[in-house]
Amino acid sequence: xxxxxxxxxxxxxALADVPRDAETPPVPERPGRYPHYERAVPRDYLREHGARTxxxxxxxxxxxxxxxxxxxxxxxxxxxxxxxxxxxSSRGVSSVLVPPGLDETWLARTDVTxxxxxAESTPHELDRVDSVVTACAVAVAETGTIVLDGSPDQGRxxxxxxxxxxxxxxxxxxxxxxVPYALERLDPTRPLTWISGPxxxxxxxxDRVEGVHGPRTLEVVLVD
Length: 224
Hints:
Layout: H1 3-14, H2 54-67, E1 71-75, H3 80-90, E2 95-98, E3 113-116, H4 123-127, E4 131-134, E5 138-140, E6 145-148, E7 165-171, E8 175-176, H5 179-185, E9 193-195, E10 200-202, E11 208-210, E12 217-223
Parallel strand pairs: 1-12, 2-3, 2-4, 4-7, 5-8, 7-12
Antiparallel strand pairs: 5-6, 6-9, 10-11
């Protein structure tokens, strides 16, 4: 008997008492009936490290984003369009990728060429675009993480991975203290992208190289 046959035999014996048409683990009628199924895990652990006001939570997010080498800007709703225009102009951006559901007022004060997020766009075409502007689904203050879920104002995952510059707008209502709070807001069936700073990697000599797996520059505009 080969190693493969022995392993498969053990799997079959372990699953011998499981109904073949069961798509989800059945609820045991008595303890120990299905010992190989996982039991529900209590979720009464600490959900955040200390109580904070919304302003303090926003400040913590800004601090941790900067710690991950993201460039952070603060503004209010009235000043958002001006900040976006200034940031794109300062980088000499001439073309920007725009998700289909992005708020048009965010780009109202800039005259850069807008490139639509099209399914047929090739990686080479996306690479020729200077920047991408998106919203986000949620942002986690304690970890300095921004989460995209592919909603219309964020577009498909690849448009935030190929261009060298990503400008992401985060509104105060989207900021949560910790990961458990973020998970409650997210749909696990959506294509979630968790971003903590610009793309970076380090070799065995710990030489940091940015822009290897995504944007070299991540700018975040926090809208208070």
